[in-house]
From TrEMBL:
Protein name per the record: PTS glucose transporter subunit IIA
Record's subcellular location: Cytoplasm
Principal location: cytoplasm
Keyword set, alphabetical order: Kinase, Phosphotransferase system, Sugar transport, Transferase, Transport
PTS EIIA type-1 domain location: 30-134
Any one GO BP annotation for this protein: phosphoenolpyruvate-dependent sugar phosphotransferase system
NCBIfam families: PTBA (TIGR00830)
Matching Pfam families: PTS_EIIA_1
SUPFAM superfamilies the UniProt entry points to: Duplicated hybrid motif
GO CC, one annotated term: cytoplasm
InterPro entries assigned: Dup_hybrid_motif (IPR011055), PTS_EIIA_1_perm (IPR001127), PTS_EIIA_component (IPR050890)
GO MF annotations, alphabetized: kinase activity
Amino acid sequence: MKMLGLFKKKTVNLLPVMEGEVVPITEVPDQAFSEKMLGDGYAVKPVDGTVKAPVAGRIVQIFPTNHAFGILAEKGLEILVHIGIDTVELKGEGFRRLAEPGQEVQAGTPVMEVDLEVLRLRGKESITPVVVTNMHLVKGLKVHGGPTPEVAAEIELK
């Protein structure tokens, strides 16, 4: 009897959600993210305002202000993408929705556009955290930092 696949690692790759520098979540200037209160992940210091799905899945939520969205990915992973810091205060200014809740997306599908200049003019940080909110499914998470890496983070599932 063969045990094919029994010891195969279960991994999910998260792509960078924006063009820019990928950094550890601990570098986000907001305690809820940097102290991993919402979960673990990575962040992007963006140079471009197109926000893409980090993984294939279904968009389960887009906040009314368009500053954040959630994706239910394979294996039940729940991913939160939060565009900028304190950007909820902009009440949607500078954000344009490209996808809708319930929509199936592939990794790299554009979901939102943000005008980075509006964020700058309003005094908001553009750093964008990407967080796995149900960490009980995760055995390990490795961030691949630097300027727009092919894979931003690799998740090993339990």
